[in-house]
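Any chance you could type out some protein's one-letter sequence along with its backbone structure tokens so I can compare the two?
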Amino acid sequence: MRVAAPAILIAIGLIGLIVAGVVQGGIPELQVAQLLAADTAPRGTIKVHGVLSEIHSGERPLHFEVADKADPSRVIVVKCDRSRPDTFQKTYDIAVQGTWDAKEGVFVANQIFTKCPSKYEAEDRLKAGTVDGPIEPTETSAAPSTAAPVAAPSDGVE
């Protein structure tokens, strides 16, 4: 019986992890063009990625447009009854989570995720191979140091 109790606790823990993973990771993610091209409107909560293209109302309730990154002519209207994020600016990458009202042609968001381009710009340019000049290594960089070695402090004895 002593062996059965830990096995039952482990099984319950694994089931809890699986359920939590499905609940948290089960939200479909689409680009704006994919949402607009869908034959049937997605049901339930979805996350849509794009670029903030227009802000009609920056005050609560927010009213704005999100364009597809690859085809900026593909746009969805978004309404959200939340406060404006600090990085809520035109041309910034954005993801909205909520439901798509195909009849009204409006995405009703309950969450907004923004990405400030300046924070990731150097990294993206490096990955794309469009770096104009050297990128300075940081403390976490594996690049070797180009600084001259520092001499140990002298104790006055030569």
